[in-house]
Write a structure and sequence with these properties.
This protein is mostly helical. The chain is built from 4 helices and 2 strands, in the order ββαααα. The longest helix has 34 residues. It starts with 5 loop residues before the first strand and ends with a helix.
């Protein structure tokens, strides 16, 4: 069966039995991890915004330890930066796909790209608000 899912095989009197076809689960996991890494590297090589947000992540981890007092607050501070990276990856994927469809000016594709950019902005605003709140609490709380 395509995709490595279970195939149902009729064994006669015992009834149907599911038999897994395709590569083992660990092999699929390793391949998926490798493909994810390739996407991560491609985004870092081609998108300045993604590189800036990676730098922000590198700075945010030690800064979260200094700013936040508890593990959940530290996780939230780093987590919102990871959210920004996630949305930027999706935005980049949408833009690259749109560019593959056509290089001609298209109002519809332009709006789609603008929506992806707006999503990235919303993620940045959320991250900014969380960090401002944590810094205010640390300084005046």
């Amino acid at each position: 069966m395509p995709g490595g899912g279970p195939a149902v095989v009729d064994t006669g009197t015992r009834g149907p039995v599911a038999v897994r076809t395709g590569p083992p689960a660990m092999s699929r996991l390793l391949r998926a991890t490798f493909n994810s890494w390739k996407g991560f590297v491609a985004a870092a090589r081609s998108e300045a915004a993604f590189r800036q947000e990676l730098a922000l992540l590198i700075v945010s981890v030690p800064l979260a330890i200094v700013v936040a007092t508890g593990p959940w607050k530290r996780l939230a501070l780093v987590g919102v930066v990871l959210l920004v990276l996630l949305v930027e990856l999706l935005n980049t994927a949408i833009e690259k796909l749109a560019d593959q469809l056509t290089t001609a000016e298209s109002p519809g594709i332009g709006r789609i790209k603008d929506m992806g950019s707006a999503a990235a902005l919303v993620a940045l605003v959320i991250a900014g608000l969380v960090w401002i709140t944590a810094l205010a609490e640390r300084l005046w709380g």
